[in-house]
Please model this.
Amino acid sequence: MSYTRAATATDDTPATATPAPSATTGADSAPSVTIADRLRDHPRVQETIMAAARAAARTRSRSGVDSGAVLADGAAAGASTQPQTQTQIETRAQAHAMSHAWLFTGPPGAGRSTTALNFAAALLCETSGAYGCGECQACRTAMTGKHTDVVHVVPQELSIGVDFVREKVVASAAKRPTVGAWRVVIFEDADRLTDGAANALLKTIEEPPAHTVIILCAPSTDPEDFPQTLRSRCRHLYVPALPVETIVQMLVDEGASENHARLAAHTSLRHVGRARKLVNTPAIQQRRAQAINLAEAIFHESGGFQAVGQLVKAVEKEAKESYAEADEAEKERLRNALGMGAKGKGTQKSVSGGAGDLRELEKQQKKRQTRRLRDVLDLALVDLAGIYRDALMVKLGAEVDLTHPDFQPLASELAEHLDEAGLVECQDAISHYRELLGFNVSPQIAFDGLVGRLRCAYRVH
Ligand SMILES: [Zn+2]
Model:
């Protein structure tokens, strides 16, 4: 799950409500944290979003909500043959600041979804001239994704098909807003779209309904990963990872010790959600240590294979168990909704019809489980890659922060026994097997293969 700070918005007000200079006027004196303030760690993101929100409000008030006044890129209302006044030029410039279709990219855990929800709040804010006061009902519900005009689509599958897109995104985007001025559709993990699904979305992105803003989010540092047809029709916004200090402060505010917070911020590679989990969940701390210690086990004849076997088993168990309760509860709800388990005449028919629905749900749950398993295995590989990176930094005498400061002795040991080429080989091997896992290779086979490659790089064959 990605980082959502919004839920604690009201609790952390005293700690973060610094009277920072802000692009907004009139809202700074408000006791709660404005949207502009929430985005202050990313100045460029802040500037883009506030300009878009102002432009959206302005076009709306000039032309009225019903005329579909906000323009898709370029098609400005003032494009007449008459000489233009200063106001018209300004209006056009402002119209350019807004777009119906956005693509938010950035490294995992940088806070794309939070940024998207903040954008929704800036658009839906009810305080005149504030563009996200952070206080009104619309702001508060939009930031937590609970606003009736904010649709937050979070796919659970590894790849997103046509039906999903039609049902969850295209249909949602077509509806008119109920209470707010906009309907905001936030679509997570849009990089998982199949080609067919991307095509199904194309028309909506190209000619979006006048009241709709669609924000596609993709955990990627390279927008090239994203289907070109969609990318070229969206305004692109890159959301960089938060600075270490910001993450540390955030975790300390939430009750973590400074030491733990700092370690988690580094180790998670500035992935906020992961850093938070690391601070709060002992099982995840253990698995992280298990993954990093693989680097030590590789030195020993069969140690690597054993350690890998244990790691894969632990991850599989976690993927299954951590959601077993939620999955069972979901099934129970469906059974009740279908009237299964009810006694009496006429229930038999609905039960046989419901069996298909239940099977469908089980299929979905299985897919989700597979995705979680891949995600956790991938994280383990990211942790392992971190220790080789640290070893290389130690070897080169580079003065940089280590990814795993608490495993510094291991990094030094690796730096001592492996040559530079070997350390680079280890990192390459890990990248290769991360990719393979994405292609549905069995985890055990992938990890065994990885151990073989690492042993070669260690020259211990
Ligand atoms: Zn507001």
Remarks:
- The CA atoms of residues 75 and 427 lie 48 Å apart.
